[in-house]
Amino acid sequence: MPFYQQQGEVPNKRHIQFRDNNESLYYEELISRKGFSSLYSNAYHINPPTAVNKVGKYQKIKKDPLDSTHRHYHIKSFDLKSSGDAINARLSLFYNDDVELSIAKIDKSMNALYRNGHNDEIIFIQSGSGRFYSNFGNMDLIKGDYIVIPRGVIWKMEVDEKMNQFIIETNGPVETPTNYRNSHGQLLEHSPYSERDIRTPQLDKPINDSPCAIKTKLNGRYQDYEYVYHPFDIIGWDGCYYPWILNIKDFMPITGKIHQPPPVHQTFQAPGLVVCSFVPRIFDYHPEAIPAPYAHSNIDSDEVLFYSAGEFMSRNNIEEGSITFHPSGLPHGPHPGKIEESIGKDKTNELAVMVDTFKPLSISSLAKEADDEEYPMSWKI
Fold first, then answer.
1. What is the pTM of this model?
2. What's the pLDDT at 49?
3. Which tens digits make up the pLDDT trace of 271-289?
4. Which fold has domain 51-62+81-232+242-248?
5. pLDDT at 2 > cutoff 80
6. What percent of the chain is predicted at pLDDT more than 70?
7. 3-state per-residue secondary structure call for the chain
8. For 252-377, which CATH superfamily applies?
9. N or C: which terminus of the chain carries fewer CB neighbours within 10 A?
């Protein structure tokens, strides 16, 4: 995020001597994007962050694509078996070169720390609660939270109440939408959320334990690193690079006299994709408005919708955790009767997360276990 934060103790200048009460030097670490040309933060460690005890063997992450036909899909994702912590409970369902989409049912807290070396992550908390710990500080997690975790952040998650999650891993940086930012990066007055809605980490007391293991994801594999010192030995940091949280209930929908297209629901962007939030909102107020969306052919994008809660005015037989996949080239729209049914209604209470990608998605073979095979025919009258 392009707004400045400061936590703990930092010197009055970057790259100068900074010592404790015993005159021991603190170790500065620059955490930056695009080399030295984009967002960055400076962190100050009690110990050198570079000291490694042991490098583990890598474990390849297997992906088994479904040999699928070109059709619409309805995946009842919560029918899939998943358990464990926030990493090993993940089930990958869709992926391409830009993004990977997973779900997870989490019933255990993480014992080890984790770092995604090549992907930013957006974790949507569908249900449950817990706490997020990172080298930048800690944040409480509640239902409806989007946790945005830039690549390289070291973190773990504790569970208070079992969590269901929808996870978006991107190969490029997750950002606020360009059309809702001014030239300085500040969210504009007409943006559906503002900086006031964003929760940032609160730095805790430094942890000066050793050694410490970090599970790292990179190049399609996991690899463990054992560091001499705990990476949470930070006494202060400042900058514009850190994890942050936006709750979907703080997304203020843009409405209009006639039906508004999906870009008004955009919440995040990353190279090759956009993420949108469909939230409870007032319907269109033109006297002849049709609140239900019109039929649409995704010529240049694949559409994935994760249904979170409420009644979905354009769909039949949708439940919590349902995921619809409408691939490019095939028209989709409201189910039969839903257009007429929507006329005259003044609001909707639906809650959903949409990911539109600009390259075709592959479907994991895991999805077959929860696939509603009759869904492509569900538009028949």
1. 0.96
2. 96
3. 999 999 999 999 999 999 9
4. Jelly Rolls (2.60.120)
5. no
6. 99
7. CCCCEEEECCCCCCCCCCECCCCCECEEEEEECCCCCCCEEEEEECCCCCCEEEEEEEEECCCCECCCCCCCEEEEHHHCCCCCCCCCCEEEEEECCCEEEEEEEECCCCCCEEEECCCEEEEEEEEEEEEEEECCEEEEECCCEEEEECCCCEEEEEEEEEEEEEEEEECCCCECCHHHECCCCCECCCCCCCHHHCECCECCCCCCCCCEEEEEEECCEEEEEEECCCCCCEEEEEECCCCEEEEHHHCCCCCCCCCCCHHHHEEEEECCEEEEEECCEECCCCCCCCCCCCCEECCCCEEEEEEEECCCCCCCCCCCCEEEEECCCCEECCCCCHHHHHCCCCEECCEEEEEEECCCCEEEHHHHHHECCCHHHCCCC
8. Jelly Rolls (2.60.120.10)
9. C
